[in-house]
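Request: Could I get any protein with tokenized structure?
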Amino acid sequence: AVLKAVWGLLIILSVSSSWVGTTQIVKITYKNFYCPFFMTWFSTNWNIMFFPVYYSGHLATAQEKQSPMKKFRECSRIFGEDGLTLKLFLKRTAPFSILWTLTNYLYLLALKKLTATDVSALFCCNKAFVFLLSWIVLKDRFMGVRIVAAIMAITGIVMMAYADNFHTDSIVGVAFAVGSASTSALYKVLFKMFLGSANFGEAAHFVSTLGFFNLIFISFTPVILYFTKVEHWSSFAALPWGYLCGMAGLWLTFNILVNVGVVLTYPILISIGTVLSVPGNAAVDLLKQEVIFNVVRLAATIIICIGFLLMLLPEEWDEITLRFINSLKEKKNEEHVDDITDSSVHLRSRSRANGTVSIPLA
């Protein structure tokens, strides 16, 4: 338990730092280069390296080492008993690849309109959307506290738009961020519906497959945007390769850490690491003097974060709380009985010393 807690602390810091770093590098890149879809496509291609990273860890830690192809076939069971076929590659990978691209693309669009703090806070609403979709689609258990959290998330969204007096850029930016959170939630719910739960190796295989699909089938989109002058640059030498590789590397690191963290520590700590990116981005934005926190913006950020944390409560949270309260009451009663017993013994000893015996009243 102690080892898992230590790993959890390290994972929390790493997840939060990688997400803050990704968001801030995007903001810096936008100063000289604004091609959000190309940036999304470029960073998604790096997902191909997920499985090789996983297999390297397997070689370093496993006692019984397997060949790359054997491990690949083992992890491809996430697609079914027959493994990864061309039909399943197109059928299962295509919708998830589109949702993955939409989530990241909308997130990058939002960063052009809003501060990093606002976007990261609004993206935390995806937990509320996951609950609502799971309740409607997967028929998950209804929980009143999560409905309250969803209402808080929606309240925070409206307040975030109101923080800039419903300015056009603010409304558009909020819409992009909420759209990113929504597609992220849809991705998670559909994954649970069609693929179920996945271990670390299966998750690495699936994310790498998304990277291959992106490279093969979505590469035509940035080409079209380039020749139509929607996203254009003078030459490939002029591209900020350092920032692009830094962004893609941190994004890949974040995705790896999220999946590694589930294996090494408690899943709830991964979510805490994600929500800590909000104060992390706020600290960086304040240092860069890019954000001025008025009362409404600060209140909206806090409300969304509280709603996110309420979403982390387990389904049996009410029963756990009642058991905890009852255990405290029992412990208090036991201490009270012990105090009475001690006082009784003390009174008897004094009575014997005086040559009389007294029976204390309970």
Q: What stands out?
A: The first helix runs from residue 2 to 29.
